[in-house]
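Researcher: Watch the backbone:
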Amino acid sequence: AGGANMASHTSRRTQDVESLTGCDLKGVRVLVVGAGGIGCELVKNLVLSGFEHITMIDLDTIDYSNLNRQFLFRAADVNESKAKVAKKAVLAFPHAASLSIDAHLGDIKDTEQFGPDFFKTFNIVLNALDNVDARRHVNRLCLSVGIPLIESGTEGYVGQVRAIVKGKTKCFECDPPRVQKTFPICTIRNHPEKPVHCISWAKELLFKKLFGGEETDLVDTAEEGADGEADGGPPDGDGAAAAPPPPPPLKQQEGESGADFARRVFSAVFEDDVQRLLNMEVLWEKRRPPVKVELAKLALPDAAATAREEQRAWSVEESAAVLLASVERIFTQRASEVGSLAFDKDDDDAMDFVAAAANLRCATFHIPLQSRWEIKGIAGRIIHAIATTNAVIAGFIVLEAFKVLRSVQAAGGDLSKASIDACRYCVCNRHLSGPKENQLLLRMRLEAPEPKCYVCTGSTSTLELDTASFTVRSLVEQVVIKFLSFNKPTIDLTNELTHKTVLLWEGEDKDEGGGEEGELHGDKPLDSLPVKLGPGVVLEVEDTTQALKCKIALTHTLLDKEEHPSGFRFIAAADEAAAAPPAPAEEDSPGGDGSRKRRKVAEGDAAVAGAEPSGGAGSGVVVADDDDDVIMLE
C-alpha cells in the first residue's frame, strides 16, 4: 500500500510539474556531467521533478572532504564512484515508476565512450563541472551535434547558470580564455611580497627539493647580475661582483638522525640562504631586507599541539617546531618515500611542512603570517564550497532546462526554430545588488554569439609569438592542447594564397604516413618550415574527437616576457571588446504597470552580475579550477 501511495503521489507531482512548466518529460533524456557539489543537488532536483531518463558521468571517487556539502554521500561511501553512489541515493527518493538512471565512473573527455554519437542520444546536457578544460570539451561537443547545454558554476557564495544554444547564445568560449596567474621565479626565490609567493616557494621549491628529488637552488643568484647591469654596474670583468657560491646539497648524511637533519635543513634555509640574499645588496636598495630566523634563539613549543590549531596563524616559534617535527617524521618514518614524495593537501606531514615553511618564509620577508587552514586552501587550490550556493544554482539549472525543453517541444523538436527569449543568465551574488541594491539573485537576457568566436562561428584568430624560438612541439603542447584545450589535434600550416600545405602534427583519422611527417617537424622552429610565414599563412587545426575545426593566423612578434610570460598572445575579436569598459548590464524587473521593463544595473553591480564562476568565458571574475595554480616561470 505504501508503494502504491508513493507512486500515486509521484505521479501527481509529475503532472503538477508538467502543468506548471508546460514541458512534457516523457521520453526526455538528460545527460548530467559531474556528480559533486552541484551534481548531487541537481540529480535530486531532476528526480523529484519527474525526469525519467538520466545519465550521470563523473571521473571522481568520494573523499572525506566531500561529505560536508555533497549530501548524497556518507562516510561508508568514501573511495566509491560519485556517480554510482548518487544514483543509489536518489533512487530512495520518491520517483516516477519509469525512472532509469545510468551512472558512469569515467572521464567525459574519453571520446571512445563519450564521443559525438553518445551526445546525440540526449535531448539536453546539464554541466555540473569543476574545471575549465572539461567545460570547453562539453561545450564543443554540444555545439557540434546541436544539443542545448545548461552551463553552471559556483565559487563560494557566488554562482551562475546560463543556457548555451548553437546560433542563438554565446557559447562557453565566445569570450577570451582566462590567462593563468603566474609569478616570475626570481620573485619567488629572492624577494616574495605576498603570502602566495611564500606558499608557492614552500610547496614548489623547498618541498620538492627535500622530498621530491628535484635539485634546485633556493636563491636566484642570476638576479644580482641582472640588476647590477641595469643599474649601470659592470656586467663582467674585474669590476663585477662574484656570484655567491651555491650551497651544499640538502641530503641526509649517513648516520645522521632525522632530528639532526631537520635542524640542519632549518639553519641552511632560514639562516644561510637568507644571508646569501643579504649579500646581494643591490636587491635591497629599494626593498626592505629579509631577516634571518635563528633556530638557537627560539623557544620551541610542542609541535603536535600546534599542528592541531588550524584556524589561527602559528607564531614563528610554533612554525619552527612544526617544520622540524614534520621533516623528522618523513625522514624517519617514511624514508622509503623520500626522493619521490609528491605534495598532497590531505597528507598531514606534507601539509604541516608546507604551512610551517611558508610562515617562516613570511616572517623572513615581513609578510603577514597565515593559518594552516588558509595555507591549505591556497596550496591545495581549494575554493571553499558552500552547500547553499550549490543548491540555489542547481535549482536554476532545472528551471532553465525546463524553459529550453518547452521551447524545443513547441517548435516540434527543431532546436533551430525554438525561441530562447524566456531563458536568462542567472547569477547568485554574495552581496546585495541590482538597481535598488536589494537582490542576491539577478537575471539577465542572454547575449547573442560573439561573431569572431573561433569555436561557434569558425572565425580566424591570431597567434603572436617568436617564430624563431617557438618549435612545432611547443606550439602544439603549450598553445593548442594546454591553452586552447584541444584533445588530439591534427595541424596543417597552409598558405591560402599559393595553396601550399604542410602537415605539422598528427591527430586522429589521418593516414599513417602523416604521423611520421608530424614527428619530423616536432622540434623545428616555426620559421624554418617548408611553408614560409607571411600574408595568407594560417594554422588549420582539426580535432575529430571534438568535431571542431579552426584557423589561426601566425604572426612573428617579440613579446615582453613580464607581460606575456607564456611567450605567446592569442587574439580574437573578443579580446578587443574585453579591453573596452563594459557596458552596464541589464536586468529584467517588473514595472509598476505589470509590464516587463528593462532597467540598468549600476556599473558596480554589473561587475558582480557579470561574474562567471564557471571558470570560463565572460569578462567578469573567473573561478579557479583544478588547473588553477601558481605557475613559477624561469
Observations:
- DSSP finds 19 helices and 18 strands in the chain.
- Residues 226-241, 509-518, 574-634 have pLDDT under 50 and may be disordered.
- The longest helix spans residues 387-410.
